[in-house]
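[step 3/7] fold_predict: job queued, chain A
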Amino acid sequence: FEEPGTILSSSSSGLLGSSSSSSGSGESKTEMKYNENTTLLFNTFVFCQIFNEINSRRVGALIRKKNGAIDYIDAIFGPWKGIYKNWIFLGVIFITCVVQFLIVMFGGRVMKTERMRWEYWVVSVGLGAGTILW
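[step 4/7] structure written:
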């Protein structure tokens, strides 16, 4: 017979979706999956911020021509105009990307991140780049 405490804890962990099997680091599979999901969310948020910084270079980019029409081409490509001339801005973007990569890939327990596969990097950068459209 099992003691009542062990039955209760095993049934509650089953209801909560946690797994009793663990990896070599002592974390359960559910904790690892949670860390993967939160790392993906964190990475996506950071890349949304990075692309928002690019968008913010051109606030009010809807420029009216002399005839009153809106120049949509300038509205879309405006934030990219002259970006290569601003070395401080490019340095901040570059350093942010490098630090983000290091945090995600090597942060581990200290930063509560899991290494991400390249597919997740593509997803998070792609979702972040989606902010260019707004």
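[step 5/7] annotate
The two ends are 62 Å apart (CA to CA).
The CA atoms of residues 80 and 126 lie 17 Å apart.
exit 0
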